[in-house]
Please model this.
Amino acid sequence: MIKKVLIANRGEIAVRIIRACREMGIRTVAIYSEADKNALHTKLADEAICIGPASSAKSYLNVKAILEAACLTGADSIHPGFGFLSENANFAKICEEMHIKFIGPNYRLIELLGNKSKAKETMKSIGVPVVPGSEGLIYSKEQAIDIAEQIKYPVILKASAGGGGRGIRIAYSREELEKEYDVVKQEAKISFNDDSLYIEKYIENPRHIEVQVLADENGNSIHLGERDCSIQRRNQKILEETPASILNEETRRKMGEIAVKAVEKIGYTNAGTIEFLVDKNQNFYFMEMNTRVQVEHPVTEMVTSIDIIKEQIKIANGDVLFWQQKDIKLVGHSMEVRVNAENPDKNFMPCPGTITGLLLPGGNGIRIDTAIYAGYTVPPTYDSMLLKLIVCSNSRNESIAKMKSALAELVIEGIQTNIDFLLKILENENFKTNNYDTSFINKEFNL
Ligand code: MV4
Model:
């Protein structure tokens, strides 16, 4: 029985997890760095332990210090949140060896799905549609060129150890491919200490649509619909929504069914997300599977009324999923924006500092997930997300209106934010008419 969870994270997701635990009658242990003495997660948890200096490497990524904190406080489980150690197979493995329940999938699945080439080949072998390309890894520039001639340019080179858009290069011609092959190999070697590559056809201007899945440890799995995450800048999602209005009912059903089939066949458990690229003809292709809870999980919670964090904890506890697929009803529309401490006029440079005044919107269908408060100083050390503003309503248009109204009310004083930039997205004609893809931000804002 899970009785005490250590939250191996900070910021809004740590607060989100603490709240879920409290509602479930589970005790919580926060870990914090020296920079986070006054952070909300540090204050809200039942217990809090300082695990090291500000730098992530010495605190939130410090496996030894985190496990010592778990032992010291008698935590029986660890929730990793997202980022930091959440997709670190080695961390999950050590937790298992220490009989501390890692709230997430088995470390072997994290390892398999973290290897993007293996993940793709596995999915392909069980009938999930994938983008045409190399069968597994490529071992030479000549082989890359051969495959590119077969599948035709443009092609995309991907580092197998990459993911989330890191370690990828696009080539429109043989000349570009010859150059980019060396660049991405070198990059992968430096960034991931693993220079293995694979190649596939580059799908131009796709939608990025992902399916949320839940699977228990008793063989039951369901999906909770999809999220359209196409509004991105440099692989950073800015705005997410569900349902994805470009999908027709048939494509939506197929995508969900394939996601559930994939989860069952690979023996995946806990919460996960299967990312697809969707082209103009509703063809969809498996991209990656994320083995953690995601930043944008709230939009799914809003339309399903299912608390994904609580489900993760119940699954880790060995419980049988309470829902079957037929019980899942997606109601209305939900949208999330990420409000960051950054300056869009200065290339989105992070702008940490002290929040001198704060006025949060509220009301019907409005949710805020955050760990900031008036007087709080945003440290320069971690990512710049200040809060997630989530709305839900009966329709996409109503959600857009609600989001604009809420953003107009939101006041964050003392630091610069992207609030005005978010408003510009919401007022963009192509956004409003749902005429967008992953190139939207670059195209519409000349970035
Ligand atoms: C692609 C692609 C187009 N064609 N692969 C790779 C990581 C994943 N999270 C997104 N990735 C993409 N893979 C093929 N064959 C388009 C993306 C992609 C993307 C790439 C670069 C910059 C931003 C992007 C946003 C969404 C999807």
Remarks:
- The mean pLDDT is 97.
- Residues 131, 156, 164-165, 168, 200-203, 206, 208, 232, 235, 275, 277, 287-288, 438 surround MV4 (CB under 6 Å).
